[in-house]
Amino acid sequence: MNVPVAHFLVVAVMLFAIGSVGVLVRRNALVIFMSIELQLNAVNLALVAFSRMHGRLDGQVLAFFSMVVAAAEVVVGLAIIVVVYRRRRSADVDDVSLLRW
Amino acid sequence: MQADQLLFWVFAPISVGSGIAMLFQRNAVHAALFLIVNFFTLAVFYLLLSAPFLFVVQIIVYAGAIMVLFLFVIMLLGVDRDESLVERLRAQRPLAIALGLAMVVEMIVAIRAGIGFATKGPANFDEAANQGGNVEALSRVLFREYFFPFEVTSILLIIAAIAAMVLAQRRSAADAEDEEVVA
To answer: Do A76 and B160 touch (CB under 8 A)?
Structure first.
């Protein structure tokens, strides 16, 4: 282990920022969803890096749980996107504006 | 230069680059493919951080199952549509990019102030924390200290599976007529 932990954290931060910009900029619901996945993965990387730094496995267990929650979230989210697409014939988030004032 | 340093410096640019490339793809399938590249580089990072079990899980669950699910839905919704580039909110894009860059800078400052750029993990991680192998050590922690969350997770997965079935179900003709009125 010759790479400082902070390097992994910097990569994680960059990926999280890319994911955030993706959520803000993109219009396609699927690509927004992928950006959220990228954010979740960035957090996982940070958790594993901290686990390595502290010499304990709790971070890895937490990353494991977050993967499970991410899998559940993907299933429900994609089902919602499919339902919205069936009603509106579009996966564009700007078309889903029923609750907008 | 040590082997793990070499691996890190090879895969870190690929990781960040594939993330940025995903952002710029107008086609959803291409974005998904770049995301798969990104997940693979993250798996390599897990290996470098002595987490071989998460390395395998990352490839099987993320790069395998979740991305296949994504590609299925992309195919289901039609791939030929490219995203329109008309900006609905003025200055949203530049503002978003500026905020993202500001977050990177802020977090890097925070990392520097918090743990510094030279901190390395304990050298005996594989003997101490990963005692008896990563999978054994991980299951020891998981089933002793995190047993209740683990069981709750199973309920969550069942609920998610049922929710997906209920949501994606085709409605009957009468329901569909109601929906037409609402839409």
So the answer is: yes
**How many residues appear in chain B?**
183
Q: Report the pLDDT value the prediction gives residue B81, as an integer from 0 to 100.
A: 64
For B1-85, CATH number out of 1.20.120.1200, 3.30.470.10, 1.10.10.10, 3.90.980.10 equals 1.20.120.1200
Roughly what angle, to the nearest 10 degrees, separates helices B92-114 and A5-25? 160
pTM of the predicted protein model: 0.89
Using a CB-CB cut-off of 8 Å, the residues of chain B touching A36 are none
Most confident of A60-69, A85-94, B117-126: A60-69
Q: How many CB atoms lie within 10 A of CB A60?
A: 28
Residue B14: which of B50, B39, B48 has the closest Cα?
B39
Strand ranges inside B5-136, DSSP E: none
Q: Does A93 have pLDDT greater than 90?
A: no
Please name the residues between 154 and 183 in chain B that touch chain A, using a CB distance below 8 Å.
156-157, 159-161, 163-164, 167-168, 179, 183
Judge whether residue B181 has pLDDT over 60. no
Report whether pLDDT(A8) > 90: yes
Q: Which CATH number fits domain A5-89: 1.10.287.3510, 1.10.3720.10, 1.25.40.10, 2.40.160.40?
A: 1.10.287.3510
Q: Which residue has the higher pLDDT, B143 or B79?
A: B143
Break chain A into its structural domains and give their ranges. 5-89
- Residues contacting residue B14 through CB under 8 Å, at least 6 positions apart: B37, B41
